[in-house]
Amino acid sequence: MTTPAKLYGRELSTYDDIDVDELLAKLSQEELTMLAKEVDPDDNFLPPSQRTNYACEKDPTGPLNRKKLIEHINKQALETPDRPEVKPYVAGVIRGKKWIPPPAPEKMREAEEQITIDLGDEYEQALGTASQEEIIDLAAILGFHSMMNQDQYHASLLNKGQPVGLGWDGITKATKPKVYPMDPPNDTDPDETIKRVHENDQNLTDLNWNNIKNISDEKFEKLFEALKTNTHLEVLSLVNVGLNDRTAQILADALQENSTLRVVNVETNFISPPGVVQLVKALLTTTSVEEFRASNQRSQVLGNKIEMEITKLVEENPSLLRLGLHLEYSDARHRVASHLQRNIDRNCRVHKRTNVSLRLRLPRARPSAVGINTSLFNLTPPSAETPTPTTEAMVTENSVVTESVEKSIVIPASENLDADARILNGSVISMERQTPLESILNSTPAASEPE
């Protein structure tokens, strides 16, 4: 049970019926002045002189002269004598009682004793003779980051040697920032690029309008209208160019009709979250866009509804491989990342199958006769109608030497050849330097070596 608050021995409820104005009328002027000093009214309309307890009854002596006031204070400080010392100062002599720190508690001393580890004579000797730099390097290798500063840690990792003047108690000073040159301004001519896109220039595959200021909406409309019929442009970069929802909608319409763009970058613009949704939705119609970036727009937070809608659209897109958007909710981030990874894996499998099928369909071409005089040997490539020559038909009346595609043939070379062995399309051709060319034409053909 709490006791009620009291004032002058009475409960506060007894003062509810008292008239305050009647009490103030009974007070004298001196009593009112004393009461005003005790009470500090919280009223901003009152001047500070009436709200504070300080009351100076002296008349002002004149305007303030700051310079004379400082000179007067300094003069008083110099003229005031110092307090006499009870014991004069003597160098090396302690005056008064010296402070001695209290002994450590028993628990701390026991903990310090438990930390002591016996490493053995070999390790004790190695650590005892190690220098400070070696100890710091060892601490960096073992991951004792609290035993060193950043400069020592990075110097140990990069094996650059410890900084001079930095020990265990060294203070790391801030390093001077590196001065990098400013990027040159974008000198791309928007009118010229619009004309080239409209003319479907086959040499224009990358359009970069990044950081170009004061591009009118009319130019954006002309560019996006030309994108509908362009079949060579692959990369479109429109970063920090002032795109809004109206121009973004025109870009979305152009993306639905374009079939060659692979990368679309519209970061750092003024596109609202619904405009971003329209751009992502337009990627479902075209299957060529593999990378889309639209982060850092006017609205930093898309919201749960917009993020879930973008996630659903991304999961329906089988060709998108990279997405540059800041998603706040972990569910959306996880679903988008999983789907993009599946698209990347599927794309890798398709590329592998395509390469294998092309390798099987293309005929295996005959290796060229490297280092062999073509005037002496007439190598004829095999065709679909001509059967693969056998070893009996290798030597003819005109001394024509042919080679089987599936097998390697040992061909002795003439004396002017430099190499003893050649590797041509997986077939190893041995060349014997000592045998003359006439012996090849007069003798029986050499036996073919199996693969």
TrEMBL record:
InterPro entries with a match to the protein in the record: LRR_dom_sf, TMOD
SMART domains xref list: LRR_RI (SM00368)
Keywords: Cytoplasm, Cytoskeleton
Organism the protein comes from: Leptidea sinapis
Identification of the protein by name: Tropomodulin
Regions that span the bilayer: none
Cellular localization per UniProt: Cytoplasm, Cytoskeleton
Top-level taxon: Eukaryota
GO cellular component: cytoskeleton; myofibril
